[in-house]
TrEMBL record:
Protein name: ABC transporter permease
Mode of membrane association: Multi-pass membrane protein
GO molecular function: transmembrane transporter activity
Compartmental location: Cell inner membrane
Cross-referenced PANTHER family: ABC TRANSPORTER PERMEASE PROTEIN (PTHR43370:SF2), SUGAR ABC TRANSPORTER INTEGRAL MEMBRANE PROTEIN-RELATED (PTHR43370)
Organism whose genome encodes this protein: Vibrio gelatinilyticus
InterPro entries assigned to the protein according to its UniProt record, in alphabetical order: ABC_transp_permease (IPR001851)
Coarse class of the protein's main subcellular location: membrane
Keywords noted in UniProt: Cell membrane, Membrane, Transmembrane, Transmembrane helix
Length: 309
């Protein structure tokens, strides 16, 4: 295996892992506040459809991205209104949101199915992009990948080094104590949920404006569900989330590599690789119940009514 092939594999891994990293980062922040949103797949699909439609009809890619983020936040607001304000079951509400987003994106995007556009291109950084191996890998990428690097750093700093991060973690661990200290628990949770929706919309726009610059129904192919598993895999730690996203990104292209190396296996079976990997990882993680219990935000998925406390 020569150096050029290794470089191409790493670049492909980076591209396939980026949408997972974006959506999982938003879900991690949401879960840190105690909100379990299973509607990621639906929000991501709405972001992909809205982003593509906005860019296609206006000719402005950045308008498409903005519309995708807004659509993700609107979906998240629906979830937050139901689960936080009306205290509906978070699991059932999230599942309903995924079904709703899947159907609505397919309905609204019917006339655009199969349509293509010129999406975002690579933006090489002068001098740095000429560095052997690392240059093309890290400094000759599209704007979404650069943004994902920045968002990871900002989120890590906010969660671990700021008062806002401490507040977020307090609400996720013990909302009753946080409420007693004067923290508006529902406001913090709603803002975290909206951030998760924005990141899901952003990840969706990456799919339709960069990864595959076109619109197809269900084009996210279960990445929203994989992102949920990624958060658990990372034990709600942003550092581990990066590793997990790119690891799952690699498994997404593994079937192409195996075909390229001449393995005589059905392509349909090979395409199952990332989802099989997700199941295996979840089983392995679940086997260590104590570690998982210590890592999970204590109030994750539990409703909170300030009127009762």
């Amino acid at each position: 295996m020569d150096i050029m092939l290794i470089q191409q594999i790493l670049i492909a891994t980076l591209k396939t892992g980026t949408p997972l990293l974006l959506i999982a980062l938003g879900e991690l922040i949401s879960e840190k506040s105690g909100v379990l949103n299973l509607g990621q797949e639906g929000m991501m699909l709405m972001g992909a459809m809205a982003g593509f439609a906005g860019a296609y009809y206006t000719g402005n890619l950045f308008f498409g991205v903005s519309l995708a983020i807004l659509s993700g936040m609107m979906m998240a607001f629906i979830f937050g209104s139901l689960s936080l304000m009306l205290n509906t079951n978070q699991v059932a509400t999230g599942l309903a949101l995924t079904i709703f987003g899947t159907g609505l994106s397919a309905f609204l995007g019917t006339s655009l199915v199969g349509t293509t556009i010129d999406g975002f291109k690579e933006l090489p950084i002068p001098v740095l992009s000429d560095i052997p191996l690392l240059g093309p890998l890290l400094f000759n990428q599209d704007i979404f990948i650069y943004l994902s690097f920045a968002l990871v750093g900002v989120c890590w700093w906010v969660v671990n080094k700021t008062t806002l991060g401490l507040t977020l973690r307090a609400v996720g661990e013990n909302p009753h104590s946080a409420n007693a200290l004067g923290i508006n628990v529902l406001k913090v949770r709603l803002l975290a949920t909206l951030f998760g929706g924005a990141m899901a919309g952003l990840a969706g726009s990456y799919m339709s404006l960069v990864y595959t610059p076109m619109w197809m129904e269900n084009m996210t192919a279960g990445r929203g569900w994989i992102a949920l598993a990624l958060v658990v895999f990372a034990s709600w730690r942003i550092g581990y989330l990066i590793l997990g996203a790119y690891l799952f990104g690699f498994t997404s292209i593994l079937h192409l590599l195996m075909q390229g190396f001449g393995f005589d296996i059905s392509p349909n079976l090979l395409a199952m690789t990332p989802y099989v990997a997700t199941i295996i990882v979840m089983v392995l993680i679940s086997s260590n119940a104590l570690k998982q219990k210590l890592a999970t935000p204590a109030s994750l998925g539990k409703p909170f009514d300030p009127k009762l406390h």
